[in-house]
Amino acid sequence: MEIKKLQEKLTRKKVSVWKKRDRKIIDEYSKGYKDFIDYSKTERKAVEYSVKELEKHGFKPLDFYLEKGKIEDGDKIYYVNNSKAIFAIKIKGNITNGISLVGAHLDAPRLDLKPEPIIEDTDIAMAKTHYYGGIKKYQWLNIPLELHGVVIKNDGTKIDVSIGDKPEDPVFVISDLLPHLDRRKGEVSEVFKGENLNLLLGTISISYEEEVKEGVKLNILNILHEKYGIVEEDLISAELEVVPSLPARDVGLDRSLIAAYGHDDRICSYTALTALIEAEPEIRSAAILLVDKEEIGSDGNTGAKHHFWITILKKLLKLQGSINIELDIDDTLLNSTLLSADVSAALDPNFKDVHDPANAPKLGYGIAIAKYTGARGKVATNDANAEVFGKLRKIFNENGVIWQTGELGKVDQGGGGTIAKFFAEKGLSVIDAGVALFGMHSPYELASKADLYETYYAYKVFLNKN
Q1: Are strands 145-152 and 238-244 parallel, antiparallel or unpaired?
Q2: pLDDT tens profile 365-420
Q3: Which controlled-vocabulary keywords does the entry list (predicted)?
Q4: What is the DSSP letter of 97?
Q5: Distance between CA 434 and CA 456 in Å, rounded?
Q6: Cβ contacts of 124 within 8 Å, gap of 6 or more
Q7: Are 109 and 131 in contact (CB under 8 A)?
Q8: Which of 89, 151, 387, 401 has its CA 20 to 30 A from that of 369?
Q9: Other CB atoms closer than 10 Å to residue 453's CB: what's the count?
Q10: Local structure of 443: helix, strand or coil
Q11: Residue 151 to residue 265: CA distance in whole angstroms
């Protein structure tokens, strides 16, 4: 008996979220997420959705407060960066005390149309693509695909394009080679070439007169012109993304999982968004930062390497009456804590050999906290301080958050990066925490509804109590 008590006292036991939480509450929260993930097929659409939700709950754009000339406790502010990233904050006390920040990314692996995409070969019109982020190319063959994005015309007009997301729309496909003829051998990366990921657009010529050359391509251009008023050159100044045409669905007879495109990392973006909307910060200001370009290194003026949010903080400091913004922004950053909200790899019984079962997160066991990511000796990682992990663990334990540790596979087997290191280099205390997934970076990833809900709850506790 004494040994049993000692075991309970000294050892850690992982707990299933399903054992502790109300199933109805989890299912209800999951419905909202499925609406979000189905709408947010691109980072632009995710920002649109987020702005609507923030404004519905009383958030106002930064310009409103700049015109007002001051900010006060309880003010709710947001700022959109180039339509593809967003920062939102609830003011509580002096910003120099630091902020509790949850940062996630809105982009997901996909295919992008090349600048001059439309070609004709063998009387078939196709669109050339370039893959974005880490994908398994074969997974994108012979599945239904949609096309979303914007085209900027020569006169500067912006045209929104969405094809494939409505029941009456056509979808697109990249054809695969039938098994009867496929005798290719070698590494998967050699067999499936990125240059061959060509989207089928059509097979009907605009005319079958002999003098008409590339009539199928011309017919496709004509269809686009009639629908959107664009010409071929307009496609050069466009961002057109090819994504799976696969709606979010419950998975399993118990409906405990959700399959969807873009869980990585829109699942953490949504949980962060809803957590901030419902948060009531007790100690200091609470904020979220949802950025772009993480899947390709966080570069560009909408990625985590571009610290546009620091400029916003400087403006907020000025609105609070700061007389030395450069010193005050340094204090703000050094006193702030960021949860780098990103996904991790769940322990899959079909592929147990690539995981360390003692440290791999399990589906349904809560938010996964990763002290480090990186690869090959923790290269390119934040590697959170023990103090940060200790404080987060205390906050979570005191508020009943169900959590587990996470990583991206065995040592020398896996690896990957998040936005964490780009914030740590600015002086913030940073640690990774998010949802564990099956099939990460595939067109149809899997997540537990329990982990979805618990991550939302964990972020809300962090924003309230940190």
Answers
A1: antiparallel
A2: 999 999 988 888 888 888 899 999 999 999 999 999 999 998 888 888 877 889 99
A3: Aminopeptidase, Hydrolase, Metal-binding, Metalloprotease, Protease, Zinc
A4: G
A5: 9
A6: 200, 202, 203, 216
A7: yes
A8: 89
A9: 26
A10: coil
A11: 25
Q: CB burial class (10 A; 0-12, 13-18, 19+) of residue 183?
A: exposed
Query: Which amino acid is present at 454?
Result: E
Q: Could you write out the DSSP letters of every residue in 168-236?
A: TS--B------TTT----S-HHHHS-GGG-PEEEE---S---TT--SHHHHHHHHHHHHHH---GGGGG
List, in order of start, the domains of the chain with CATH numbers: 2-108+261-465 (3.40.630.10), 110-244 (2.30.250.10)
Strand order in the sheet with 238-244: 158-163, 145-152, 238-244, 110-121, 124-132, 199-202
What is the rounded distance in angstroms from the CA atom of residue 220 to the CA atom of residue 120?
Answer: 10
Q: How far is CA 147 from the centre of its chain?
A: 18
| Pairwise CA distance, residues 357 & 404, whole Å | 12
What CA–CA distance (Å, rounded) separates 318 from 338? 22
**Tens of pLDDT, residues 234-290:** 999 999 999 999 999 999 999 999 999 999 999 999 999 999 999 999 999 999 999
How many angstroms separate the CA atoms of 165 and 176, rounded?
23
Radius of gyration of the chain (CA): 24
Interatomic CA distance for residues 115 and 99, integer angstroms: 41
**Residue 154 corresponds to which amino acid?**
N
Name every residue whose Cβ is closer than 8 Å to that of residue 151 and which is 6 or more positions away in sequence. Answer: 158, 159, 161, 228, 230, 234, 235, 237, 238, 240
| Per-residue DSSP letter, 375 | B
The set of long-range contacts for 176-179, using a CB threshold of 8 Å and a minimum separation of 24, is 176/138, 176/141, 176/142
Per the DSSP assignment, residues forming a β-bridge with 438 are: 446
> What is the sign, positive or negative, of the torsion defined by CA atoms of 230, 231, 233, 239?
positive
Q: What is the predicted pLDDT for the residue at 330? A: 96
The pLDDT tens digits of the residues spanning 175-208 come to 999 999 988 888 888 899 999 999 999 999 999 9
Evaluate whether 100 touches 466 at the Cβ level (below 8 Å). yes
Any bridge partners for residue 242, and if so which?
111, 147
